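Hey, can you fold this?
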Amino acid sequence: MIDPDGYRPNVGIILMRDDGSVFWARRISRDGWQFPQGGMNTDETPIEAMYRELAEETGLQSHHVEVLGATPGWLRYRLPARSVRSHTKPVCIGQKQVWFLLQLKTDDSAVRLDATDSPEFDAFRWVDFWYPGENVVHFKREVYVRALQLLSPMARSLAGESKVPAHVGEQLVRRLDERRREQGGPRRSRQDRKPA
């Protein structure tokens, strides 16, 4: 399913422990690390897609987590030109995502990266809350920083200011804005109205 602007509806998952660390997973056969994410089926709401993707990519079920919050609308990123399959119709130029912040309510033993026949990830680790904003592949960076920034108040209410410091997120946003100005682009990733 691709919208009229060429974006595929998608959900992103920030899975957090009580200490403020977040789940960071390595993609199979690649050196890239990212949060769990995946496309929405036409008959799914964002929360239904989130629970399905959570189960497929981490093996975790709804009783293993608590939803702490979600971004208020779609966050978009464009794919690099080399990744756009212009020979397919409709052409997908990027992803539009609703991001969820989840609290892990169990220990790591419940995580199963091989929960499906075609796993997405082959390793995971727990990293500081803001780490993914600087370490994800460049074309997803703005969306990651924006999602982390939007969800950080909920994360901070659980883990505390020392584990999810507001000033770190503000610094990341400033650096992104500076890069965008240098490149002559808009200040931040596009955010649309709340999805249905």
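Oh, and this one too while you're at it.
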Amino acid sequence: MSATTTITQVEPITAQSILRLFPDIDTSSAELDGHDEEQIRLMDEVCIVLDENDKPIGNFSKKICRCLPPLYRCSALTIAGHLMTNIEKGLLHRAFSVFLFNSKNELLLQQRATEKITFPDMWTNTCCSHPLGIPGEGGVELAEAVAGVKRAAQRKLDHELGIKAAQVPIENFKFLTRIHYKAPSDGKWGEHESESQFSFPTRKILTSSTHFSRLHPLHQGRRRPGA
């Protein structure tokens, strides 16, 4: 007697199918009621929506998502991209993570602010966020996409930690890999991302921002006694 395994496949998302797959994408802003105003403002930013091959769906060279009809406002797209109901349908966007090391090979960790909509108060790497659908941060082929994500990393290091672009020049970002992951934050929100990861060696970095709770250096290659 043989066992039968049923595999449910998510329909690929394309510029042609996204309207049908997510018909209420432009009405989901009510999900943000009661959240911090700054976090709501950040939801107005434009995520780069991808197909299953990590290719942007349509042309994202302007501040609107041109692969979508005009009724698909950018804020709605970003909100929808973080709702688990849409994530489970396969909605995927581009992201990045930066691992910043000092001369002692210590990794700078960041504790996310309590006001964050996804994963509040949790410890994470130095900086993780999304490139936007704006000139300079997009890209279809790998080299172009990586260059765009590096520019986005510069922007967010300044925004989140007050680290200026001059302290983190583009050429010093070391591309490590890309990962595809999905993670629920709670019953409503989560992440589904194609994420580029970078390491960045530095001697000394000064931070001067309040978009995080705490920073902490993680000692690499060391263990607690008995660990």
